[in-house]
């Protein structure tokens, strides 16, 4: 119980900070009599959400589904391309350079092309989310797969390990921290890509809600959609962190764990006979 309370300390601090910001925001808007279409008060934003919660939650769910579809596609294609780049000199010289060049192109400029090619349904939004999210996943996966101790690879070759075994037993486990780093960046980019797609393709989603509300100067609804996007982004990011924590409890990036104290002199004396038996 004490451990759970300690682990939630960071979340409690974040919630407290957010509450202070909301109180200051509410007080500032009321004190300076800021007009609603410029900056609505948090109470007005909450009231706007409560006026149509079902509709807004359905749009949030639509954005979530598109984001996850684009993200999963980016992970599959990004990790697969990274493996090909690491094992193929040809792909390293061609596909890698192509991805770098493609990443330099503003994705908003490509969005209308996806609408022309794929129509106005979910497909162009998923494609844009995937295209924005794939680059950090690809780069970090390539880095992780290449960051192997040469001695470990020499040992695997000396034991006549196949390339597939070297990949799945040595390279891939060693690359998992880098892959998760790319995925945590990619999930945020996928959400951005989904909103870009909803701006262009329209029809549904929080991006479409923002676009319609902006056209009618409905600022409270815009802020409701932005708040839901913030919550959605935090949930997706924290979800990946939880998965990473369970899959990589051994990695140095997992901070906040209880520090194991070194054994006392009496405990060391008790352990000496056991160590002697192990050595025998």
How does this structure look, described?
The protein has 280 residues and is mainly α. The chain is built from twelve helices and no strands. The protein has helices at 2-7, 9-32, 42-51, 53-87, 89-103, 107-118, 122-146, 150-158, 163-201, 206-215, 219-247, 265-279. Helix 6 crosses helix 7, helix 6 crosses helix 9 (163-201) and helix 9 (163-201) runs antiparallel to helix 11 (219-247). The chain is globular and about 75 Å long.
Keyphrases for this structure?
280 residues, disordered C terminus, 82% helix, 0% strand, mainly alpha, single chain, globular
How many β-strand stretches? 0
Q: Helix/strand-derived class?
A: mainly alpha
Number of helical stretches of at least 4 residues = 12
Largest sheet data: none
Order of secondary-structure elements: HHHHHHHHHHHH
Parts with pLDDT < 50 across at least 5 consecutive residues: 258-280
Q: Assign an overall shape.
A: globular
Determine the strand fraction and express it as a percent band: under 5%
CA-CA gap between termini: 42 Å
Fraction of helical residues: over 70%
Counting copies of identical and different chains, the oligomeric state is single chain
The overall pLDDT average reads 84
Taking all Cα atoms into account, the compactness measure Rg is 25 Å
């Amino acid at each position: 119980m004490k451990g759970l309370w300690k682990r939630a300390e960071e979340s409690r601090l974040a919630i407290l900070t957010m509450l202070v910001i909301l109180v200051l925001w509410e007080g500032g808007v009321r004190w300076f009599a800021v007009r609603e279409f410029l900056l609505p008060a948090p109470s007005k934003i909450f009231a706007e959400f409560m006026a149509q919660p079902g509709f807004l939650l359905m749009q949030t769910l639509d954005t979530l589904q598109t984001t996850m579809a684009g993200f999963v596609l980016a992970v599959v294609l990004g990790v697969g391309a990274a493996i090909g780049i690491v094992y193929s000199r040809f792909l390293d010289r061609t596909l890698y350079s192509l991805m770098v060049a493609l990443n330099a192109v503003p994705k908003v400029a490509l969005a209308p092309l996806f609408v022309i090619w794929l129509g106005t349904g979910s497909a162009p939004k998923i494609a844009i989310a995937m295209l924005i999210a794939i680059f950090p996943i690809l780069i970090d996966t390539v880095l992780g797969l290449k960051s192997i101790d040469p001695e470990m690879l020499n040992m695997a070759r000396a034991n006549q390990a196949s390339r597939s075994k070297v990949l799945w037993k040595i390279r891939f486990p060693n690359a998992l921290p880098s892959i998760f780093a790319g995925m945590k960046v990619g999930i945020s980019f996928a959400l951005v890509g989904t909103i870009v797609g909803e701006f262009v393709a329209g029809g549904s989603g929080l991006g479409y809600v923002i676009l319609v509300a902006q056209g009618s100067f409905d600022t409270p609804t815009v802020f409701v959609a932005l708040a839901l996007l913030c919550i959605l982004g935090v949930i997706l990011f924290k979800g990946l962190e939880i998965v990473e924590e369970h899959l990589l409890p051994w990695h140095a990036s997992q901070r906040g764990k209880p520090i194991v104290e070194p054994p006392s002199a009496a405990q060391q004396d008790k352990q000496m006979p056991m160590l002697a038996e192990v050595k025998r």
